Amino acid sequence: FNAGWYQAADTAEVRALIGQALRLEPGNSMVLAAAANALVLVEGDTASGAELARRSLDRNPANPFAWDCLSIACLMEGRAREAHALQQRACAIAARSPIRHFWDMGLCLTSVVTGQYRQALQHAQAASILAPDFRPPLRYVAALSAQSDPERAFRAIERLKALEPGFSAERMAGDSDYPVAALRRSGLLQGAALRDLGG
Length: 199
Description:
Elements: H1 8-24, H2 29-43, H3 46-59, H4 64-76, H5 80-93, H6 100-113, H7 117-130, H8 135-145, H9 150-163, H10 169-174, H11 181-186, H12 193-196
Helix pairs in contact: 1-2, 2-3, 2-4, 3-4, 4-5, 4-6, 5-6, 6-7, 7-8, 8-9
């Protein structure tokens, strides 16, 4: 786990905010899910995050944020198939959500780590259509399309350059701190196809 984009002061503030939220609303499903996500994504504490996510689901089994948190915790613990099943559940619950792209992107991630690249691309494209300025799906569209559809990959790269100052395909492929962990683990960034698209 690498939360290098957070400063130590940020994590201390996050811890304080989690504590405050849980003191004020200990039985609120959304508060529990938000705290769970913060523990998993900022602290890297998958056990505590998963426990809060389960408590959230005890109060509201239809909370897609809690299902997503459980999925990400499983993913970070190397349980890819379980993560994928949990993410499918989150996506199904959130099918009519105005922020459906969030769960489509989650399903893209778990599809990548389970080797389902065609489905991963479909979910990344869906997320990108629903939220054109959301950068994560564009990163995955670029990498997943680099060999099979270089033109689509190039368009995604150009869009990323417009949205993200300093973006380059070389950085995405070579910078271990760049936020594409699932792609990196899958080996999809190792080939020359993405780098050859320039940028």
